[in-house]
Amino acid sequence: MTALARKKIAKLERLAELAAVHSKEQGESLWREALKRVRRNPSAIVGASILGVFILIAVLGPFLVPYDPGQIGVGIPFGLEVKEGQAIYPGPNSEFWLGLDHQGRDMFSRMIVGARQTLLVGVVATAIGLTLGCLIGGIAGAAYGLGGKRGRTIDNVLMRFIDMLLAMPSLLLAISLVALLRPSLMTVMIAVGFISVPIFARLLRGAMIAQSNAEYVVAATSLGVHKRKIALSHILPNSIAPVLVQATLTLATAIIEAAGLSFLGLGNPDSSQAEWGTMLADGLFNSRFDYAPHLALFPAIGIIITALGFTLLGEAMREALDPKLRK
Amino acid sequence: MLRFIVRRLLQLIPTLLGLSLLLFIWLHRLPGGPETALLGERATPETRAAVREAMGLDDPIFVQYGRFLKQLLTGDLGNSLSEKRPVIDLFLERFPGTIELTVVAMLFAIGLGIPLGYLAAKRRASWLDHMSVGGSLVAICIPIFFLGYLIKAVFAVKLGWFPTFGRQDTTIDATHITGFYVLDGIMTQEWDAALDALWHLVLPGLTLASIPLAIIVRITRASVLEVLNEDYVRTAQAKGLTERRIRGRHVLRNAMLPVVTVIGLLTGGLLSGAVLTETVFSFTGIGQFAAQSIDHRDYPVMMGFILIIAVVYVIVNLIVDISYTFIDPRVRVR
After folding, report:
1. Which residues of chain A are within 8 Å of residue B302 when distances are taken between CB atoms?
2. Which CATH fold topology does A114-325 show?
3. Which class would CATH give B90-283?
4. In chain A, which end has fewer C-beta atoms inside a 10 angstrom radius, N or C?
5. Is the distance from CB of B227 to CB of B255 less than 8 angstroms?
6. Residue closest to B285 by CA, chosen among B210, B209, B200
């Protein structure tokens, strides 16, 4: 393993340790205190508001749309025409607020309905990474912290595998995965989720090892509590905070990476389902961007704002957990 | 020092062996089996059977892996399905372009990022600080290929200041020796060719630089802020040292270590971004070639790309590790 990979690991472990630092104030749990600090942070409020609106649109989407988002040629009577073999796409107007797409579908309706699919891609991909990563990291962390000599061996084997994944450029990992599976929305979610597995695994393992030296663990051990119970109901709940912070940040990158895969032609081939990443890739296809920039612009703005929301909230959460950054 | 480098090179062997095993499994898990890599997806069952026979795909798996390793070691990555030429040759032709692009991108990112991060920290809470922090946050959240189209539409299509695609104007009759067009132009003293190649690098370079730039600004800012609070900076000020001396000797030198770490990490990651950026600007490098191979389901090219990128990534890491020992005397070579 290179020293650089070690630096990467050291960074993740530092984040993991932060959660192990106990607050000195009496009577406040780590969670409640962190929540308090998040609420005082203006960028957290901005991020949370953006996400609130986004989630609201994702949930209520189908009830808000003026047109059927899947209906091809809804706008043809309103001016979608072909000039010299080139389709002219009407931009934003009073009838279609965000214009029409390359198949004459209402962009506004597709943006609204697409919010749900986009959220789904982000959430499912992150969930896949979180589950797999936490499974590997949790086993490794528990084995290292409580398992003695044999535990260290288990930890060692698992971590060498994780380090190998960590050493690969992320897009490359995704490309090779999509090549194996058939391109579909699910494949995209699996590939994007898989990228984040090593990060989650490293984080949870680091946090659990840091926790396993805590006094309450020693107390539980001396009381004769079963090791599995110590790991699951004592160490794990106290180690999960940095993982949740990372999950928030991963939601942002997942949406962006999924859009990148769509752009490379590895995305969902079925464009009847509106999803911002696919719409963005469609809008840039065949130099459509030069004569109908609105096709790509609106999905891009949607993705950027959503990613900003997740990033702002995630970084505020990280600051709240980091005692070094406390004012 | 030499022993350190040799030992680090030896450490590459298990990593590469692991990677070759992963690639071997990958090849065998392809839909339709490894013969798909050779024939593409539209071959008839008869040709498939013949190729399976010829490739020895019915041999024991260990024998197959041994043969696969031998091929890799001799640089034989097979033939491209779409170009009908050895994959390794195709990559060698395109590699200089990608190297030029990543070097330019890194120069942009470091050259703009460190001064910007330093000034933002120095003038904390000024408009410059807010702009840098806000701007870098947005830059991280923009899909890089969209940024590329945006930059291209404004500066190349609308304003016409820069070329829209390629590495060099086709009307220029340039002599190519090394494949690095800028270098070739300088070597042959064809200044117009060198300048034109540089001109073609500006927009893709800026696009590719966006994410590293944002991260370098943020890290530099955070790192400088931390150092500015140190006692030795106050001491230096109290001693009456010039601003310039404090900045160079005391602040930047100590603040640079985390920045260098990040620069190393980012350089490896740039190759992912190069796939998207080169595609946007039709820049003939290995990234664009890899993206095309996905379109054509050209598996030998995809495999070659994964392998080459991984090797490059590992070598870049090695270079970064070595550079640490120059910057931080505490990092001793063992």
Report:
1. 175-176, 179
2. MetI-like fold (1.10.3720)
3. mainly alpha
4. C
5. yes
6. B200
